UniProtKB/TrEMBL annotation:
Gene3D superfamilies: Spore Coat Polysaccharide Biosynthesis Protein SpsA, Chain A
Protein name: Glycosyl transferase
UniProt organism field: Rubrivirga marina
GO molecular function: glycosyltransferase activity
Transmembrane portions of the chain: 6-39, 344-365, 377-407
Pfam family, one: Glyco_tranf_2_3
CDD domains, sorted: CESA_like (cd06423)
Lineage: Bacteria, Pseudomonadati, Rhodothermota, Rhodothermia, Rhodothermales
Alphabetized UniProt keyword annotations: Glycosyltransferase, Membrane, Transferase, Transmembrane, Transmembrane helix
Superkingdom of the organism of origin: Bacteria
Membership in a protein family: Belongs to the glycosyltransferase 2 family.
Length: 471
């Protein structure tokens, strides 16, 4: 029995080590690819001025679609932020997905909204549209109330009523940086085949907000949100920049993405029955153009930033990660024919298989590794030097990857400039491995289990509101 367990231990140890090596190789490759792209961004940013861009006549018209559900704590500030975004030709379309709180009342009162007719331009099937409003003080602001149908359904209502060639999907609490639309629209000016561009998501918790703008960027006070800052830096400053460098970006976050309206309508909009609707839409766009042999590009603008509130408690964060895991598995299964299929280019051959291995199957491998470690301790057959070596290697790989991502973010964007914030980031590089990472594994395992049970529940996301300062 002992010999059998020893064999099992070594087999699982080898599997776990191989998994961490694969993660390290993938992140090292994307980080290396990200550096030259961020170097170009840094050079371009030095010559970019919002004032000059505002006078340009080439900026394509954009409709900002902001779905909201029970957002009374942040809705007015979020809409003010959208109104304050500098861009010559934009419309703002707020879609209320049957809120049960005072979201609608607060918006109607704050922006002098009155009933108005807005005709549809597309026929994507959605829940019933109840009424529409337009602001008397800001004619570029529209508000639509609809029956509850979920976030994707609300965005589809916005798509149906979009009148511009480009549409931008946002979260209900999004605060766009003043130059975000210029930066995210730039790829459309450089390449006419562009159908979708991703922006960067920043965490606004405890930042200083005035007049709908983030004026003081600082690390959150709570550790739950701080860990997420590090995760977002890894995801956007390293991973997505790297995938984009080889034209293999598999995911555009629904919290900030700019899409060609005609392409989104052609693929039928977002799937309201899919939990990972933003991931599914991105893959659907890849498939649509690849299967028809149409030239296209899916791009990433790392300098275009949208600030959003992240979960501040473990309970809410756990529900979010559970949902992300279920959504990812659901979408990969739905588009499984893309996996290792050369017809779908580098997305099908490289980035989507990597996503499946690292993000979707990774928690299972980690959980098995932890289980074998505990069993070895209980049975007294643990090879302590080997176990310490494996744990040290895994920790070192994770720390190095995180430090590289933070370095890239500081090199190109420099959002966190105080020594205190930088010190906190470096502390979290190590601290996240001492409990937080294990929690995320547990939450993601719950997501795997719910996926197998076909549980499509969304889970509640509570808001605490922005740290708004007076003008």
């Amino acid at each position: 029995m002992t010999d059998l367990f020893h064999a099992l231990f070594w087999a699982v140890s080898g599997l776990t080590l191989g998994f961490f090596v694969a993660i390290a190789a993938t992140y090292s490759a994307t980080t290396a690819l990200a550096f030259p792209a961020l170097l170009r961004l840094r050079r371009w940013s030095r010559t970019f001025h919002v004032g000059e861009a505002a006078g340009a006549t080439s900026a394509p018209p954009i409709t900002l679609i902001a779905p909201m559900y029970n957002e009374e704590t942040v809705c007015v500030e979020a809409v003010r932020a959208l109104l304050g975004v500098e861009y010559p030709s934009k419309e703002i379309l707020v879609v209320d997905d049957g809120s049960k709180d005072r979201t609608a009342e607060r918006l109607i009162e704050a922006f002098d909204l009155v009933p108005a007719v807005r005709h549809r331009t597309a026929r994507i099937e959605t829940a019933e549209v109840l009424r529409s409003y337009r602001s008397r003080s800001r004619p570029d602001l529209w508000f639509i109330q609809k029956a509850n149908g979920g976030r994707s359904d609300a965005i589809n209502v916005g798509i149906n009523h979009c009148r511009t060639p480009l549409l931008c999907t946002l979260d209900g609490d999004s605060l766009l940086a003043p130059d975000a639309l210029y930066r995210v629209a730039q790829p459309y000016l450089e390449d006419r085949t562009t159908v979708a561009v991703a922006g960067t998501i920043g965490i606004v918790n405890d930042c200083g907000v005035r007049g709908g703008r983030v004026e003081e960027i600082r690390m959150p006070r709570g550790w739950v949100a701080r860990f997420q800052v590090l995760e977002y830096i890894r995801a956007f400053a390293a991973s997505r920049v790297g995938w984009n460098a080889i034209d293999a970006l598999p995911l555009i976050s629904g919290a900030f993405g700019l899409f060609r309206r005609s392409a989104v309508v052609a693929v039928g909009g977002l799937d309201p029955d899919t939990v990972g609707e933003d991931f599914e839409l991105t893959l659907k766009l890849h498939r649509y153009h690849r299967e028809r042999g149409l030239p296209y590009r899916v791009d990433f603008a790392p300098g275009a930033v949208s600030w959003t509130e992240c979960p501040s408690t473990l309970a809410v964060l756990g529900r979010q990660r559970d949902r992300w895991q279920r959504g990812g598995l659901e979408v990969v299964w739905k588009h499984r024919r893309m996996l290792f299929n050369p017809r779908y280019g580098r997305v099908g051959m490289i980035s989507l298989p990597s996503f499946l291995l690292i993000e979707m199957l990774g928690p299972l491998v980690e959980a098995v590794g932890y289980g074998v470690l505990v069993a070895s301790l209980i049975l007294g057959v643990l090879n302590v030097p080997v176990a310490l070596l494996l744990l040290g290697l895994a920790l070192a790989l994770g720390v190095c990857q995180s430090i590289a991502a933070v370095a890239l973010e500081q090199f190109a964007l420099r959002r966190y400039t105080s020594l205190r914030d930088l010190a906190l980031l470096l502390v979290m590089v190590v601290a996240e491995n001492l409990g937080y990472r294990q929690l995320t594994v547990w939450w993601r395992l719950q997501g795997v289990w719910k996926f197998l049970r076909k549980d499509s529940s969304w889970g509640e996301m509570t808001r605490t509101g922005f740290a708004t300062t007076s003008t």
